[in-house]
Each structure stands twice: as C-alpha cells, then as structure tokens.
Design brief:
This protein has 5 helices and 18 strands. Helices cover 14% and strands 29% of the residues. The chain is an alpha+beta fold. It folds into 2 domains: 181 residues, DNA ligase/mRNA capping enzyme (D-amino Acid Aminotransferase, Chain A, domain 1); 107 residues, Nucleic acid-binding proteins (OB fold (Dihydrolipoamide Acetyltransferase, E2P)).
C-alpha cells in the first residue's frame, strides 16, 4: 500500500532567518489610494455679502437659490439629508433621498440647496417653507436639490482640492439623469456684473461668486461671495398691530450687540392661512413685562410678544432712522435651519 506523501512543512529547520520578499518602491506617478475617514458632518462654507461681485478668471458665478441649504450624505447604511445646522431632515425630502440613492456611489457628501419654483420658474423660499410639514412632515410637492459642491466621494476627502476640481467631479457624478430631483447648479461664463444685472432683470434674488482655486473651508471667509438684488434677512417678531381679523402688521426686531431693538414693521406678503398660524403662535408668546421687549416710541396699538419667532423679510434698504424700507414677508424660519437673526453693525 502506497504511503500518502507528507506536505511540505511551512517552517523549515534552518539557521537562516526567515525574510519576506523585498517590496518594490511605490511608483510616485501612481495615485495614493488610501481611504479617508468619512466625517459625520462638515460645517458649511458660507457666503460673505458684498455690494458688487468680484471679477476675474479665478471666479465662477452661479444663481443664488432661494431655498433651504442642505447637505446629502450617502453612506453604506443609507442616506442622510442634513440642514445647515446639522438636523436630519431626510424624511422631509423623499424625492431628493431617492435621487441620491440612484447615484450609485458607495459614499459621498454633496452640498446644495433644496428649492421649489413659482409659476415663472423662479426659486421661491415661501413656497418651499409652506410645503414642509410638521416635525415629522414631508413636502407636499416635490422639491429639487441644486447641487453646487462635492466634499467627499467614495472614500476620498475632497475638501483640500480646488473648487474647479470638485465641481468637475460633481458634474460627472450627477449628469445624465434628467428625471432626477438632484440637479447641477450651473456656473455661467460671463462676468459677475453681467450675471448680476441679468438676475435682477429676471426678478431673481442675486448671484454667488466662488473662487475656483480655493479648498472647501467652513465658515464665512470670503471664498464665496453673495450679491443680492433684493435684500433678505431674518428678524424676530416682537409684536403685532391689532386689527379686526388676525393682525395688521408685524413688529420686527434685530440684534444690536446683545440687545434686541425695533427695526420697523411688515404688513405685506402674507397669506390668510399663514396669518392665522402666526396669530395663534403669537398669542402663546404674549409679553407680560411692564415695558415692551424692545425700546418703542410709537403710538400704534401693539400687542407685544417674546422675541422667539424668526421670519424672513425682503426689503429694499434702511431709512435714516434705522428702519426697514419697503419690507415684505417671505416666510417663517425654523431653528433647525440655523436662521441667524440680523445683527446691526455698530
């Protein structure tokens, strides 16, 4: 009977030390494919407000979208859609969530803005705001996500790359999907002054100028600049003027240092349903102090309320007395949207 041959032993009895096969030097022309840790959240890059757009070949110009700033996180465990302040609003934007799922990438973080459009095709914050449900609500109409930056893709941190590279990768990622809720925010090959003039002529809010050579940096550092046709800021409601129905106008407040001060009123731009909702909210916040919550020398019949509700107001400038000029109500802001109440410059 033939004997079964023994396998060659893994370790030999030898005086020679065991050595691994020499490793060749890495070709420096080959890319480094080590994966980067995916952050749970990236603080957004914010726009610095200026009166005129910067000019030159290093700047790209986009339309300023009038919506909610969001970031889409595509992760192995699923999709997260975060607000500017880091709150999870995934369930409010099912169409955007589905569009992100269809991109077919393992991981990504995309910066952009959720928008809805009016009858003339302009993004309209008030439409989007009114379409959002309660704490667990969803949009009643489909919103679109205008993507304008890419911070992370398939295991690679892109924040240190130039904007021109990030936008090239972003356009390749989301192009060719005409039915998707995720769209690429186009940059226009014109001067900043030309695009700003055209946006104002078409009744848009303004433009954004972005430096193509900069990395993605969180905060308001001047890499991104916004120029507005119509000023739009967030203010506190500090009271309302009585009327037979809901209210005649809202009294508005802003910060001067640490103090809230009166900056005028707004009486246009409301829908009846919004007026009823606001009146109900204000009735629960009636001011009980002996003095108004803000210094006020007027003679109107005002019901004062605690400065808690934040609203978005369009206006054409400031009067010499420091009050808003030609103001119009746009909608109520939510704390989750990181609504920053306007601060008066000293």
């Amino acid at each position: 009977m033939a004997r079964t041959p023994r396998s060659k032993p893994l370790l030999q009895d030898s005086d020679a030390p065991i050595r691994s096969k020499p490793r060749r030097r890495r070709d420096p022309a080959q890319p480094n494919l080590l994966l980067d840790h995916m952050p749970r959240r990236i603080e957004p890059s914010l726009c610095l407000l200026k009166a005129k757009p910067p000019e030159g070949p290093d700047w790209a110009y986009e339309i300023k979208w009038d919506g909610y700033r969001l970031s889409i996180h595509i992760e192995p465990k699923g999709i997260r859609i975060l607000t500017k302040n880091g709150h999870d609003w995934t369930n409010r934007f099912p169409e955007i969530e589905e569009g992100a799922r269809e991109l077919g990438v393992a991981s990504a973080i995309i910066d952009g803005e959720a928008v809805m459009y009016d009858d003339q095709g302009r993004s309209d914050f008030s439409l989007l705001q009114s379409s959002l449900g309660g704490r667990a609500g969803k949009t009643t109409s489909p919103a679109q996500f205008m993507a304008f930056d890419l911070m992370y893709l398939d295991g690679h941190d892109l924040t240190k790359m130039e904007l021109r590279v990030r936008r090239h990768l972003l356009e390749e990622l989301i192009s060719g999907r005409p039915d998707s809720a995720i769209k690429f925010s186009e940059a226009f090959h014109v001067t900043g002054a030309e695009l700003f003039r055209a946006s104002c002529d078409h009744g848009l809010e303004g433009i954004i100028a972005k430096h193509l050579g900069r990395p993605y940096r969180s905060g308001r550092l001047g890499d991104w600049v916004k120029v507005k046709c119509i000023q739009s800021e967030s203010f506190f409601i500090v009271g309302y003027e009585r009327s037979a129905g809901t209210f005649r106008s809202l009294m508005l407040g802003a910060y001067r240092g640490d103090q809230v001060v009166y900056v005028g009123s707004v009486g246009t731009g409301f829908k009846m349903r919004e007026m009823s909702q606001l009146r109900s909210m204000m009735n629960k916040l009636r001011w009980t102090g002996k003095k108004p919550p803000v210094p006020y020398a007027g003679k109107r019949d005002i019901v004062w309320v605690a400065p808690t509700i934040i609203v978005e107001i369009e206006f054409r400038g400031w009067t010499s007395e420091g009050k808003l000029r030609h103001s119009s109500y746009k909608g109520r802001r939510k704390i989750q949207d990181n609504a920053a109440v306007y601060r008066i410059k000293e």
